[in-house]
Design goal:
It contains 13 helices and 28 strands. By secondary structure, the protein is an alpha+beta fold.
């Protein structure tokens, strides 16, 4: 009874366990904690929190024996009168090596993950804790003949099929390996690059591995021959058999006389007592190309957010390496490493009722088995996988996922392994519903057309729906998975009134408002709700209760006579720069303190005329005459009188006329106001006849070399006489002006005329004349006295005029 109960426990754990691949869900962005064991780079996962209640499933695959799915799908399908093996099962005979794989996993309750961060996506980081119960069984490298003998049994019928009796046969690296273990994983993932269209995240899981049970039988070289179905001849063979110390034997653990109890054994099975803990790990890196990410960007609550219900990436490419590590076990006394040189073993006497003990007793007691020493412990490699995938999402809810999951044998002698599988999965993903249709092919040659459905917290599916539905005549592989979880998914903010303030923070949920006013209306957009705003149609600061105050002087614009200038409340918001109590706008003198009567202007002399208009700011005067008096009584006010203290005629600007030289001719009528002269000669002295003749003589005899400023010698006598006159008359000066005809360029004529005047000046100075009394000017051809069109006219125009002036 106890053996039957143990068989039921083992069978149930194989059937109701978490699928090794959970193939369809690998394509989902809503995999959550279920996908941590496949891809630990979970930063950016759609879940804010995800916890497993239970996850159950199983995967079985082989390339040898198929079974009619109707045997378990259709009631009363099996005919007990027919041979089940021949009727409902089918061999795949193709000459290839045969392999069997069974992989199971239970993801334990309370396994969870959560995301966190401050980015727009709000999940830059992720943490997870998971624990799983795992079992993997492999049978590898069986020749087809060996498999058929095992399938049909050793006997006449089997021999008639495979013709093995007395046939020498050879097996190379034939192995049967199994292992169960628990893993406890802590996962951390983080976004490492997020710029423009490109996004990269990485993740890793540190696992603590608790050894449970394992066993392996590896025959590197097996040479054998059956004789008459009852004798097995073995020769030149080497093999090893490892089981851990906690592996059950029927006699040791479940015999009635020892009182063995299956329940206690199962409890002990999961205690840390055999190999202790080992360490293992998973790593992953994911790249996403996000050219459409901004399409799903929206503003809410004063920030920018991405719509969590939309896939941000168009293409995702990833890599993960999982279950990299080994598990150490203590060897049982029923572990053997042996060789056989030659042995004829009569197998009809072999009895396996005592399980491993029976096998051990037989190996130890049968001559021909040469035992070799073994260590106290051995290690088994975990089923490492290298996963490569790419996911293409042309739209946010639909994508196509391609996956290559490569499962190498890390150590052919002591390791379990998964099956290398390639899949192609079209998928539909929404927040609370997902549909995944994986098409897969494994290296055993099995093709599957699967379906996985995600509905809220429930996930259920298979990687080979056709087989489970009975659409295939024979099934060579099977997979069923189901999970129940507590997913907490972030969702796009709800905004009932569409004002970009979420319902959670909106204080006026039925009326549009702004984020600054927490969703309440603010017509003028000044950040103050209309109910609190005294000027709801005009924006203003909170200090003025929402009324505008452009100049910030505390006076509302509606009451401010100077809305663009800071001012005083008592002046209706207008400034008073000079502090005279008159607003600058009404103050004609805004920078000088004044009186109201003069519109804010000062009046220093107190004559009623503002200083700015007062021509005599320090002397009181007549308002009609710009505040000035008429001090000298000449009829001109001081501001108009050039001589305010001396009476004078109006035509001389109030000044008396002078006679500077005392010649009886007022300066205004005196052509020579500083030289005593003749009244008949406008106040200038009269020249004597002889003096006039000297000047005339000098003028008429003055000649120059043609085109030059060189005085001819013939002119020296007349110039000497002129010089003597000037020297003898200290108050006589001479104005010398040079002129030319119109021949040549005007600019050259101007220069020549000036040089000739200067030549006369130099000559006279040379004769003792004071140079300060001599003034020169050159006019070129600009002042002709005759017609330049005639020779005579040109000769007259070529001249140097000399005029006596009085100094």
């Amino acid at each position: 009874m106890k053996k039957v109960l143990l068989s039921v426990i083992i069978t149930c754990s194989s059937i109701f366990s978490f699928s090794q691949y959970f193939l369809g869900l690998r394509a989902s962005q809503y995999g959550g904690v279920t996908n941590v064991g496949f891809n630990p780079a979970i930063a950016g996962d759609r879940h804010r929190f995800d916890m497993t209640i239970i996850g159950l499933g199983t995967t079985l695959s082989n390339n040898y024996v198929g079974i009619d799915p109707k045997t378990f799908l259709k009631k009363n399908y099996i005919n007990s009168d027919l041979n089940f093996q021949e009727t409902y099962m089918r061999e795949r005979v193709n000459g290839k090596k045969k392999n069997i794989y069974v992989g199971t996993q239970i993801q334990g309750p309370l396994s969870f993950m959560f995301t966190f961060g401050k980015k727009k996506e709000n999940h830059k980081n992720a943490l997870a804790f998971t624990w799983n119960i795992n079992t993997v069984v492999n049978a590898d490298n069986m020749s087809e003949k060996f498999a058929r003998i095992a399938y049909w049994g050793v006997g006449y019928k089997s021999d008639s099929i495979s013709h093995f009796n007395y046939l020498e046969m050879h097996e190379k690296n034939l192995s049967i390996q199994a292992m169960s273990w628990l893993d406890y994983g802590i996962t951390y993932s983080r976004e490492v690059y997020n710029k423009g269209d490109h996004y990269v995240k990485v993740g890793g899981t540190l696992k603590f591995i608790q050894a449970v049970i394992s066993g392996n039988a590896v025959m590197k070289d097996l040479n054998y021959r059956w004789q008459n179905y009852d004798t097995l001849s073995i020769y030149n063979t080497s093999a090893n058999l490892d089981v851990n110390s906690f592996a059950p034997t029927s006699k040791e653990y479940f015999s009635d006389d020892k009182g063995g109890d299956v329940g206690n054994y199962v409890k002990d099975l999961f205690k840390v007592k055999d190999g202790g803990f080992s360490a293992a790990g998973d790593i992953a890196a994911v790249y996403e190309w996000r050219p459409k990410r901004d399409k799903y960007l929206y503003k809410m609550d004063g920030k920018e957010w991405y719509d969590v219900g939309k896939s941000l990436y168009t293409i995702q490419a990833g890599f993960s390496m999982t279950d990299l590590g080994r598990v150490r076990f203590k060897r049982s006394e029923y572990s053997y490493n042996f060789e056989v040189k030659k042995l004829d073993w009569y197998v009809k006497d072999f009895n396996a009722n005592d399980g491993l003990q029976s096998i051990g007793d037989t190996i130890r007691s049968t001559p021909g088995f040469i035992l070799k020493p073994t260590k106290s412990t051995y290690t088994m490699w975990l089923p490492t996988r290298f996963n490569f995938w790419i996911d293409y999402n042309p739209v946010h809810f639909f994508g196509i996922h391609a996956l290559a999951s490569v499962a190498p044998r890390m150590n052919p002698d002591r390791s379990v392994h998964h099956i290398t599988t390639f899949s192609f999965t079209p998928h539909l993903d929404w927040t609370y519903f997902g549909l995944y249709l994986p098409v897969s092919c494994d290296v055993l040659g099995n093709v599957g057309f699967g379906t996985t459905v995600r509905i809220g917290p429930l996930i259920i599916g298979t990687s080979d729906l056709l087989g489970l539905m009975g659409a295939k005549k024979f099934m060579y592989n099977a997979d069923v998975h189901v999970a129940l979880k507590i997913p907490i998914l972030p969702r796009k903010h709800r905004d009932r009134d569409k004002d970009f303030v979420s319902n959670r923070l909106d204080e006026c949920k039925k009326v549009k408002g702004t984020w600054e006013t927490r969703g309440c209306p603010d017509k003028d957009g000044d950040g103050i709700t209309d109910t609190e705003d005294k000027c709801p149609d005009n924006p203003g600061p909170r200090a003025t209760q929402g009324c505008p105050d452009r100049d910030g002087d505390g006076v509302y614009d509606m009451n401010d006579d100077c809305p663009d200038e800071k001012g005083l409340a008592e002046l209706k918001g207008c400034p008073d720069t000079d502090g005279d109590g008159i607003a600058d706008k009404d103050d004609d003198c805004p920078t000088e303190a004044g009186t109201v009567a003069l519109r804010g202007c000062p009046d220093r002399d107190g004559d009623g005329v503002a200083d700015k208009d007062d021509a005599c700011v320090d002397v009181p005067g007549d308002i009609a005459h710009k505040g000035c008096p008429d001090s000298d009584g000449d009829g001109l006010y001081d501001n108009e009188d050039d001589c305010p203290r001396e009476a004078g005629p109006i035509e001389n600007k109030g000044c008396p006329y002078k006679d500077t030289d005392g010649d009886g001719v007022l300066d205004k009528d005196d052509d020579c106001p500083t030289v005593f002269g003749d009244k008949d000669n406008k106040g200038c002295p009269k020249l004597a006849k002889k003096e006039l003749e000297i000047i005339k003589y000098a003028f008429e005899n003055l000649e120059f070399e043609t085109g030059k400023d060189v005085i001819r010698k013939t002119s020296y006598i007349s110039l000497n006489s002129l010089a003597s006159l000037l020297v003898s008359k200290p108050n006589y000066g001479l104005q010398i002006e040079g002129h030319t005809d119109s021949d040549g360029k005007p600019e050259n004529n101007l220069v020549l005329s000036q040089k000739r005047a200067e030549a006369v000046k130099r000559y006279l100075i040379g004769k003792g004349v004071d140079g300060s009394k001599l003034e020169t000017a050159g006019y070129g051809d600009t002042k002709p006295i005759a017609d330049n069109k005639t020779k005579e006219g040109k000769q007259k125009n070529r001249r140097v005029e000399m005029t006596i002036v009085f100094k």
